[in-house]
Amino acid sequence: MSLYLDTLRRRVLVFDGGMGTQVQARELSSEDFGGKPSCIDYLSLTRPDVLESIHAAYLEAGADVVETNSFQASRLRLEEHGLADRTQELNRAAAANARRVADRFATADGRPRFVAGSMGPSGFLPSEEDPDLGRLALADLVPAFVPQAQGLIEGGADVLILETCQDILEMKAQILAAREAMRLTGRTVPIQCSITLDPTGRMLLGTDFRGALATLEAMRADVIGLNCSTGPDLMRDAVRYLCENASVPVHCIPNAGLPINDGGRTLYPMTPAPFAETLREFVLDLGVNAVGGCCGTTPEHIRALVAAVGRVAPRPRPGRGPWCVSSGMTAVALKQEPAPLLIGERLNTQGSRRIKRLALEDNYQEMIEVARSQVEGGAHVLDVCMALTERTDEREMMRTLVKKLSRSVEAPLCIDSTEPAVIEAALQACPGSAIVNSINLENGRERIEAVMPLVVRYGAAVIALTIDEAGMAKTAQRKLDVARRIHDICTREYGLPPERLIFDDLTFTLATGDAEFATSAVETLEGIRAIKRELPGVLTSLGVSNVSFGLGKEARAVLNSVFLYHGVQAGLDAAIVNPADVIPYPDLSADDRRLAEDLVFHRDPDALAKFIQHFEGRTADTRAREEDAAEAAMTVEQRIHFQILHRRPAGIETLVDEAVRRRPAVEVLNDVLLPAMKEVGDKFGAGELILPFVLQSAEVMKKAVAQLEHYLERREEASKGRVVLATVFGDVHDIGKNLVKTILGNNGYEVFDLGKQVPVQRILDEAQRLDATAIGLSALLVSTSRQMPVCVAELHRLGLRYPVLIGGAAINRNFGRRAALVDGEAFYAPGVYYCKDAFEGLDTMNQLVDPVEGPKLVERVKREAFEFKSRSAELEQRAAVSSAQQQDFRITVSREHAIPAPPFWGART
Ligand code: B1M
């Protein structure tokens, strides 16, 4: 390991501050700039003494790392000054200047000082379609950065810092260039990647910090962090996320505040003390490993930072979050809970006549609409295949489509091609981390050797088919044997983490009646079990609908459904499937299920004949009629339940009207609508429903709730208070939050609904701006419910006094009690209130605004929080595993295994 990384792991390092303002302050003449006054990078050759004095000022202030004066010294930027062919020389000089000063300081006191070779953006945005900004592709940018990186390495940089990145695809180009430069120079240095976010937490082209982290981790960056754009205060959400999810050290190098335009002059308003104080908190509370200053910061900022941070050991962090793939916009976990990860299969010229036609017509716009509709329908990832026998430009088509998809669709891509050149073109156009489909051993190692270098180079995950020289593996044992060979090559020779290797152990149709394939589905399911058991970490995937190829439409939908269900039970992680080709498992009749299972598990030699006979003459209409007949015999409440469960929106409003004629609207909500939605959730959790069906049920539920709202009691009165309401960051569930909004709104509260996926910072800003009475937070995922205590801790830290009401399926009353104690110690004075439903939310608000009841309620939750704390301490003491052991466990193993379910996560009370 490099001395730089080694030191960074042992103690927090302080970078230097801004360069531009320091140069300006020295009021240099045009001659100093060698006649190129706007080229600050040229000073490395013309006035090295000036730069050395700036480096020295920062080192005197206590910095551990100085950045080279080479931010704009890529070949493309230097071309503007006629200096392109001096790129390497100029960067070498920049690094040598910094090196000289750093070594002088290190020799004087024995403490190592480091030189970070700075590489800024080229000014082009390769992800963009703009004819100017998007003119250069990744392949054009790499050679422009190589001589810069080479010069910096030759000049003595300890690390290359790729910074102020606005387009994550350009950063991929910089990483590739840095690696190429290391190959050319024969010297390896760490790569530190620094993205720039606007105040909303996204990069200029829309990448959120989750997507950026996933992409940079996949590209094997050694250090990841943020710089420029804003002051540290607006970086808090992103920094927290990085610290909670990155497997590598994290840095934060902000501006001295958000710049202000003062009559054409840029001012940076943050003075050294608050700047240093915020970064100190990032280091001590969040676990940041390196801090420093960007635009507007001075040696005074760095002196304050050194005083605030000292050279403390970094705070331990949880480690890597879930393994992800990413798009140009965001990240998606490869392992979905509940499984499976759904890979939309329709953007495939080989499998869809429509896409083939659109591809032949070069109709990318309509292909993008198909992509969007798949994502709206629940696909997590999109498979993309552009192979056509009628055309020879698969590569160009793939490149075009991937670029367009990356700018318009949130889902990561699965690049599906037999041609390595096409795969490479797609990976070069893809700003995120894609999946490559696929590798195998059909011609020995040939395919792996052609594709795996691309997978590794461009940070992809890969699907591997269990095919070897002897053909497609048909038994579970052969599937495992082939998988093991591929696994060993990919992980040992190419260094691919097993978590990024997805085995498709092949699905064969059961429709031929061929004896050889009669047990093929069982072998596939057993193959999944064996692969998951024997090759820890790897994932599995199937092209589900192959199992029914050749059967009628209705029979196919049933067989696909049963096979998918049993696949998930066997441990299937991902499925390439079109929801339109599947009937949800719970919708199948007992007969349908039994006959399909007889076929899948080969329980009856005549299973195929019986299955075909059973579905003869069956159409979607017949099924709908059967369902209608069943529904006709139900009460109105049962019909509402049925329609939500079976995703039938038609007539739901009328049913709600009927129901409220028979019983109060609140009862319809609590006894009919909510239990129906809960059943959907239970079936989803049990692997019986896949996500697209849950989405459709949610749409019916939304309609039902909207209709019911007309009947919920509405009291016109003066405002009783203002509630700022939000579903927390990372969470898209909003039905419950919307209900809370209605119930509070109907009962005299002004509700300011911030929507879903709302970062903590925005909630705090809005609460202050609106002078809120209280904040209401909704979270339905265990992972996102962590945002609630984070929000409370932030409120506490800032001394803000908004009571926080929390609710959602992932939390319970004890969760609320724990969240009320910041760091498990200090009670958040305005209180945290768990609300099991919207009505408890209303009741809580009514008490809080009451001058007599409010203080009593606060006292009660405070007492309960401390009682709960001492009860859990007792329980924890009695628990067999010592907390010390647990702590070690948390830090050393990967995060999925490391974070035990919090001890208080009991049943809802
Ligand atoms: Co998802 N989902 N979902 N989902 N979903 C759950 C929550 C889940 C429990 C299902 C399950 O596995 N059984 C599970 C979470 C598991 C966990 O974390 N332990 C889950 C999962 C895993 C996921 C995905 C990760 C699935 C995937 O992609 N693999 C994904 C996550 C996406 C994301 O958020 N990043 C996902 C996606 C979706 C859909 C988009 C398909 C859809 C949401 C559509 C939408 O909301 N617009 C959806 C749905 C519908 C559900 C279930 C089935 C139903 C949720 C719901 O609307 N309930 C849900 C299962 C379940 O909850 N049992 C599930 C009805 C609603 C009225 O209840 O929101 O709890 P609720 O609100 C209640 C109270 O909690 C309270 O009042 C309301 C009633 O009066 N309340 C508050 C809520 N917030 C409050 C705030 C307050 C006060 C009270 O402040 C004042």
Keywords:
909 residues, alpha/beta, 48% helix, globular, disordered C terminus, binds CO-5-methoxybenzimidazolylcobamide
Question: Care to describe what's here?
Answer:
The chain is of the alpha/beta class and 909 residues long. It has 36 helices and 29 strands. The chain has an 8-stranded parallel β-sheet. Strand 4 (159-165), helix 8 and strand 5 (191-195) form a beta-alpha-beta unit. Helix 15 (394-408) runs parallel beside helix 16 and helix 21 runs antiparallel to helix 22. The longest helix has 26 residues, at 853-878. It starts with a helix and ends in an 11-residue tail after the last helix. Residues 883-909 have low confidence and may be disordered. CO-5-methoxybenzimidazolylcobamide is lined by residues 336-338, 674, 677-678, 680-681, 684-685, 691, 694-695, 698, 730-737, 739-740, 776, 778, 780-782, 805, 807-810, 835, 837-838, 841.
